[in-house]
Amino acid sequence: xxxxxxxxxxxxxxxxxxxxxxxxxxxxxxxxxxxxxxxxxxxxxxxxxxxxxxxxxxxxxxxxxxxxxxxxxxxxxxxxxxxxxxxxxxxxxxxxxxxxxxxxxxxxxxxxxxxxxxxxxxxxxxxxxxxxxxxxxxxxxxxxxxxxxxxxxxxxxxxxxxxxxxxxxxxxxxxxxxxx
Length: 180
Known about the structure:
- A 6-stranded antiparallel β-sheet has the order 1-14-13-7-10-9, with no helix packed on it. A 4-stranded antiparallel β-sheet has the order 2-6-11-8, with no helix packed on it.
- The protein has one domain (about 35-160): Mu homology domain, subdomain B (Immunoglobulin-like, Sandwich).
- It has strands spanning about 30-35, 35-45, 50, 55-60, 65, 70-80, 85-90, 95-105, 115-120, 120-130, 135-145, 145-150, 155-160, 165, 170-175.
- About 0% of the residues lie in helices and about 50% in strands.
- About 25% of the residues are buried.
């Protein structure tokens, strides 16, 4: 609790931010406040994604990998209204490293997100203005260290309207040592 004492006359200006920290639970649901975000971990390689007759790549979900395996991360944002200055962030699960490859997936064009920013711990995508619709971005991770890892939720939201946001569910990935 904070107490503010004012001596003299005039206005007092303040701002407040509330953060919440919840325990990690693999069954935590996604949240939607004006848009939706869904994350998928898809297999890459000969047993990975395949193209359907309509030309759409289907995702083969994967949760068990070996060291050195590559996984494609697909983030799908669904916007019921036009959104401005949209930011999509996806924290990497521990034990994984990003591969400098990313593709925006919107119809036939390159997509509105432009180039992603790869930080030490997450991938970040930005778009200035998006019309109502479904948008997808993809990037790849390499399994680097054996273990069982929780993938914290991906988030999407407007940078200047903080009440518009969404989070995906938590994922669990397991990386096994490389078999000879």
